[in-house]
Amino acid sequence: MEARRDVFQAIADPTRRKIIGLLADSSKNLNSISENFNMSRQAVSLHIKILQECDLIVVQQKGRERICEVQLEKLNEVYEWTDQFRTFWTNKLHALKKVVEQPNDHIDSPKKL
User: Fold this and answer.
1) pLDDT digits (tens, 9 = 90+) for 72-86
2) Is residue 34 part of a domain?
């Protein structure tokens, strides 16, 4: 049994990130998505399939067309994971700022002649 893909696998690829961006504006059919890439429609369909497996898009059949719609809520997982590092680095930068802004009492001042 194949393990379910996660959202991090989906956003690891620049093509899939671009597809998410395209769909964030509005739902699109597979042909209109494919027009934005220099690759076969079949290759784009594979990226769409991965995004579906990660629950980032839903594809609905409407007549003869397959319409893709983004589900951005799933990206909250990425935000929550990266937010811990934002907090870490913010704290580090604040600590560095304190050190840099402190008077240099420990450094000997130039001696007057």
Assistant:
1) 998 988 988 888 888
2) yes
Note the pLDDT of residue 1. Answer: 44
In the chain, the number of structural domains is 1
Q: What are phi and psi of 39, to 5 degrees?
A: -155, 170
Range of the domain at 29: 7-72
- pLDDT at residue 105 tops 80: no
Q: Which residue has the tokens 């220099």?
A: 38
CATH number at residue 67: 1.10.10.10
Measure the CA–CA gap between 3 and 111, rounded to whole angstroms: 70
**Residue 2: inside a domain, yes or no?**
no
- In this predicted structure, the answer to whether residue 4 has a pLDDT above a threshold of 90 is no
